[in-house]
Amino acid sequence: MTPHGLQRTVLVSGAGIAGPALAYWLHRSGWAVTMVEKAGAPRGGGYPIDIRGTALEVVRRMGILPRLRDAHVDSRRLTFLDADGGEVASLPPGAVAGGVEGQDLEVRRGDLAEILYAMVRDDVEFLFGDSIDTLDQSGQGIGVAFRSGRRRTFDLVIGADGMHSATRKALFGPEEQFHRYLGYCFAIFTLPNTFGLSREVVLWNTPGKAGALYAAGDHDELHAFLTFHRPQPPAGAALRDPDVQRDLVAGVFAGAGWEIPQMVGAMRDADDLFFDTVGQIRMPHWSSGRVALVGDAAYAPSFLTGQGSSLALVGAYMLAGALAANRNHTAAFAAYERDIRAFVAMNQALVDHGAATLFPTTARALEQRNARLRGLVTLPSATARPAHSALTLPPFPRMP
User: Fold this and answer.
1) Whole-prediction pTM value?
2) Interacting residues of 268 by C-beta distance below 8 A, sequence separation 6+
3) CB 397 within 8 A of CB 324
4) Phi and psi of 179, rounded to 5°?
5) CA 256 from chain center: how many Å?
6) Are 308 and 300 in contact (CB under 8 A)?
7) Going by C-beta distance under 8 Å and a sequence separation of 6 or more, which residues neighbour residue 221?
8) Neighbour count for residue 254 (Cβ, 10 Å)
């Protein structure tokens, strides 16, 4: 343990959303922060994400709300299509997502990541192109051996390395213990905007299958999304081999209508294909000794909730605040779990309360969903979901 009065040291694994947000708050409260990221540089790109409710207050307190408002995608329309490409309903996105028009933010994930990185790059040590190999908690502090061969000792290690966290696996065991599969697989990639779309999402459905084209602004590139229901998750090569993934998705969507054949063809050629199962991470505890987890590594809610980035931002704030308020890391980790677990549970439960109904698996459920969508067209915009703002942020502790 660092002697009282000396700067405490922390290693944060993962430079996505939760990691840099945590680094900002830890540095502000006096920690010496090192970040390790297996990618060779900050990762840009990525699907647009939402920042809502309590998370908006986090970014306001960080001073980056104006920059994020400038980066706001401002999607104007979400259009649902039937099997043949006919329009079912066209709505403001907030009417479906339970957002607050004029308040919630929708930004490209890469834009948020770049803004967060810019906030901390001059104050934090970054180790790009490296990762944790082993952790040793047997002595004073925690010994870290990196893949590169370097060795360091830190007071704490925080895993902010995503849903498939290597930090979690090393400390708590295989992902299967904590992964709650939600019955879907998905593929995302980009393709040229030859469809004339602007600031909108077009979503095609048949029972158990969906395809979406997402125009984030007026760009010449679209985000494409293909998802399908599968009772059991794929195993083996489908989780590792992009060619197997492409074949799996193409087989599922063979013979589909609308623009799906063109999307499948673009997926075949895409160099940015990302394939995964839809799931959550649910753990009884988020810390072990001197190691804790934050964001998707601890409590991924799945994209069906639209709350992954918001949970990451709120979790980072609450963990850093607990460490600022409690000199003892065991007490800090306990406070972090106590103060945010109910908020996490409410947001993960959004999939139990209809979020997955965007992707019905039967013809009857699809028709019921379409009837509800047609009804929404004539109703005022939905109010925000209580889970989004269920946590009131405490003041950030002042430095001692």
Assistant:
1) 0.91
2) 246, 250
3) yes
4) -85, 125
5) 29
6) yes
7) 190, 191, 192, 193
8) 10
Query: Can you read off the two tokens belonging to residue 313?
Result: 């931002």
Sheet holding 32-37, edge to edge: 125-128, 32-37, 9-13, 156-159, 291-293, 287-288
How far apart CA 160 and CA 15 sit, in angstroms, is 7
Q: What are phi and psi of 118, to 5 degrees?
A: -60, -30
Using CA atoms, how far residue 347 sits from 47, 224, 315, 341, in Å, is 20, 25, 12, 10
Residue pair 55/103 in contact (Cβ under 8 Å)? The answer is: no
Q: Nearest 5°: phi and psi at 19?
A: -60, -55
Contacts made by residues 247-250, CB under 8 angstroms, sequence distance 24+: 248/185, 249/185, 249/187, 249/275
Cα 141 versus chain centre, distance: 30
- For position 378, what pLDDT does the model report? 63
- pLDDT tens, residue by residue, 100-154: 555 788 888 989 999 999 999 999 999 999 999 999 998 889 999 999 999 999 9
Pairwise pLDDT comparison (250 vs 46), residue with the higher score: 250
Strand 32-37 vs strand 125-128: parallel, antiparallel, or unpaired? parallel
d(CA 360, CA 369): 8
Closest CA relative to residue 309, chosen from 116, 23, 39: 116
Give the CA-trace dihedral at 65, 33, 155, 341, to 10 degrees: 20
The Cβ of residue 11 has, within 10 Å, a number of other Cβ atoms equal to: 25
**Mean pLDDT in the chain?**
90
Sheet order of strands, 142-146 included: 132-136, 142-146, 151-154
Residue 329, H or E segment: helix 329-348
Copy the structure tokens of residue 169: 């696996």
pLDDT of 102 reads 58
Residues 259-310 have pLDDT tens digits of 999 999 999 999 999 999 999 999 999 999 999 999 999 999 998 888 899 9
Nearest-angstrom CA–CA distance, 79 and 93? 9
Cross-sheet strand order for the sheet of 274-281? 87-91, 77-81, 200-206, 209-215, 221-229, 179-192, 274-281
Q: What is the pLDDT of residue 295?
A: 97
